[in-house]
Amino acid sequence: MIAALRTARNRELVNLVLVSLLVVTGFGAVFVARENAVESSSLSYAALFIALYLAAHVVLRLTLRNADPYLLPLAALLTAVGLIEIYRIDPELARDQGLWIVLGLVLFTAVVVAFRDVRRLEQLRYTCGVAAVILLAATAVLGTEVNGARLWIRAGGYQIQPGEFAKVLLVVFVAGYLRANREVLTHPARRLLGVGLPALRHLLPLLSMWGAALVLLVAVNDLGSSLLYFSILLAMVYLATGRWLYVGGGVAVFAVGALAAVQAAPHVQDRIDIWLDPWRTPQTTGYQIVQSLYSIADGGVFGTGFGRGFVLVGDRTVIPDAHTDFIFSVIATETGLAGAAGLLLVYLAFVYRGMKLASLADDGFTKLLAAGLSFALGFQAFVIVAGVTKLLPLTGITLPFVSYGGSSIVANFGLLALLLCVSNHVNRPAGT
Amino acid sequence: MVEQALLLARVAFVVLLYLFVWRVVRLSVRDVRAPQESLILSPEAARAAGFDLGEPPAAAADEPGELVVRDSPVFPVGTRVVLDDEVVFGRSEDCEVVLAADATVSARHARVFERGGARYLEDLGSTNGTFVNGVQLAAERQLRPGDTVQIGATELVYGRSGR
């Protein structure tokens, strides 16, 4: 009887209840701490949030009964921590974020229903590849420049960041392409200078993706996304072939490209100068990163508590873009080292679940898809957290699931849905 | 009063966060500790631990195995393929066994290799698959005398040479 209740979906529900308690605690704390600034009706955003994730849970109960019971709660936890801090910065932004989660849930349901058998996606690999390139090209041509990088397309009062969607599509394309060409890339027929090299026609799609990532770097000035795409490609090629040659070659090409970008684009050079010494210009270009470091230091080990950190001056945030790129610094202020490290552990757990799926998957496409998607999410989190803590030059990408932003939330819901489809396929009972 | 409530919320938040992380970690630890069956045991250790490995492969060792063509559009029936350390089957010129005339064979289709005195067959990601006794290979598989291997339209029977 007890064993019969321990299904994947029931476990998931228990985990979601835990996340719900966390949301209630966080919203309650912010509300109590900022009683004079926050209206009580805004507490309903917490209820909306919980209802949305329960809806996602019901979708999974109906469609993917054997899907991994940890992925959805892990994503819910990340979204919850983000939502609490966004709510703390500005309750209206939290309401908008709630709407993005609704849209994300729509995409989530669509993907789960359409690709229950995730192998069907393999036939769409070229469609996905072309769509990714079109999205990126559209950004380069139609995009508007914000803070020196051209990441956004404005449409009817809203801004869309196509790069976030391109990331997921790219992983699908690369997984399909590598599955078809793994053999010729791993055991090449020709040798050049004692090194096995595959024929150009097999390498061409790979080289053109690398080229596209470099063009993106120079044309759009988007160091972060470029680094992200490049790393996804390298990681997946290495996973598929096990050959360091491609990794070494890729890193060399990227280094040359990055050097060229530094020469060509003053924006990139500025970013690097700021990274090396933000205290030289603490009131102007270095302001954002200096404030971020002060905020993180201010949090100490256990933080100031929700609503009590030095986050707002009047109506403005102390760190510009605190609700998007710099949300990690705000979380570190208010929950301290304990909370920030806990958040990173949650990312680690998410990537672990994804890699575990990849190791269990029985065909090359789903293996590469699961590994690629979880790598993309984990690496994106690494790049932005490294940026705001001044480990790497700052690049404007979002902290997945946590940052405020419609494109980011919706695209990552798509990523989550694909991973769940893979896990349902992997965990299916034997003989079906 | 308010301060106590906020302190409580702070503690509760961190406790809940780590409780959640712990739930995932506990599961992961279980994954790592799960018995790996005989994959990491030597054949002797596995047999001592009571795993049934079938007939000991040691008996099959040392003699170079061979594959005999039973049906093929490329080779005459009865052609013997003597298996050394590694033999690759495929359409490409650099394969040990070139099946260039068969369009259903991939450039590098499958390989047979020796490990620990036994011979294994592995598909190299071919388009149309490699079959042993009519079953498509998902992973590498040890060959046993009498096994029928199908690569494209070519069928071969595995046996030990000298018999």
Structural account:
- The complex is a heterodimer of chains A (432) and B (163).
- Chain A has 432 residues and is mainly α.
- Chain A has one domain (4-426).
- Helix content of chain A is 70%, strand content 5%.
- Chain A has a 3-stranded antiparallel β-sheet with strand order 1-2-3, with helices on one face. A two-stranded antiparallel sheet of chain A has the order 4-5.
- In chain A, strand 4 (190-192) and strand 5 (195-197) form a beta hairpin.
- In chain A, helix 9 packs antiparallel against helix 14 (364-388).
- The longest helix of chain A is centred in the C-terminal third of the chain and has 34 residues, at 327-360.
- Chain A is globular and about 70 Å long.
- Chain A starts with a helix and ends in a 6-residue tail after the last helix.
- The model of chain A has no long low-confidence stretch (mean pLDDT 85).
- With 163 residues, chain B is of the alpha+beta class.
- In chain B, 23% of the residues lie in helices and 29% in strands.
- In chain B, the strands form 2 sheets. Chain B has a 6-stranded antiparallel β-sheet with strand order 2-1-11-10-7-8, with no helix packed on it.
- The model of chain B is unreliable at 58-62 (pLDDT under 50).
